[in-house]
Amino acid sequence: MSLPYFDYCQQLEQKLRIEEPLMEQAGRWIATQIRLGGCLHIFASRTLQGVAYEFWQQCPKILPSQLIEHPAAGIYETLEGTGHAIIEQINTHPEDIFLLLSNEGRNPAIIELAEWIKAQGHLLIVITGFDLSRSIKSRHSSGLRLYEYADLVLDNYATLGDAVLTLPKFELAICGTASLATQVLLQQIVYFAVLHLFESH
Fold first, then answer.
1. Contact 150, 114 (CB under 8 A)
2. Could you give the C-alpha distances from 71 to 44, 132, 185, in angstroms and in order?
3. Cα separation, 91 vs 39, whole angstroms
4. 128 pairs with which residues across the strands?
5. What does the alpha-carbon distance between residue 14 and residue 115 come to, in Å, rounded to a whole number?
6. What is the rounded CA–CA span in Å between residue 156 and residue 16?
7. Which one is the CATH code of 4-72+94-199: 3.30.70.3040, 3.40.366.10, 3.40.50.720, 3.40.50.10490?
8. What is the pLDDT of residues 29-42, one digit of tens each?
9. Pair type for strands 165-166 and 173-174
10. Which of 82, 178, 60 is CA-nearest to residue 127?
11. How many angstroms separate the Cα of 84 from the Cα of each of 18, 42, 94?
């Protein structure tokens, strides 16, 4: 029996490897801000909340981090104005750096958060489905999407509906990879961040 999902993931891995310079840069930026006394703040859209939580739980103590909670489990993220409920829970210092995760990057809540982050002068790293996000319309009145606020964008190659395989003879798309790709990118960023921190000592 063939393993089409494994085959797809193998191809995806090759695409992600191309982003090595961006992962290294993200790690370097995080390490720099941590050395200055900053904290890594992490927030994810509803579909990537589990990834964000796992990443935050596994973050080594050498990388001070804070998970930003999504009010009401993110069910209102498509409504303009809901980003303010997210922002109200954040306590920051000038040296802090932010990491936002969203496959589509078009919902008002995360866009309003990104706008606030940049208004405060913080560095912003975004993981998103870059081609997907560019191909769809923003749900925010500004017309902007998340990646347009980012200082650095990494691509998780998310597809619309996050279904990458079809069953022969059936009109059914199944099997997502966005969470897997996002976690791989995050873990490699952590590796680079810790490496840069130790090299600076």
1. yes
2. 12, 25, 25
3. 10
4. 102, 155
5. 32
6. 7
7. 3.40.50.10490
8. 999 999 999 999 99
9. antiparallel
10. 178
11. 36, 16, 20
Q: Name the residue ranges covered by the structural domains of the chain.
A: 4-72+94-199
Residue 126 near residue 146 (C-beta atoms within 8 A): yes
Is residue 173 exposed (0-12), middle (13-18) or buried (19+ Cβ within 10 Å)? middle
pLDDT of residue 83: 95
Q: Tokens for 72?
A: 């009401």
| Token couple for 95 | 């040296």
**Mean pLDDT for the chain?**
95
65: amino acid identity, one letter: S
In b/e form, how buried is each residue of 50-87, taking b as 16+ CB within 10 angstroms?
A: ebbeebbeebeeebebbbbebbeebebbeeeebbeebb
Q: Are 187 and 57 in contact (CB under 8 A)?
A: no
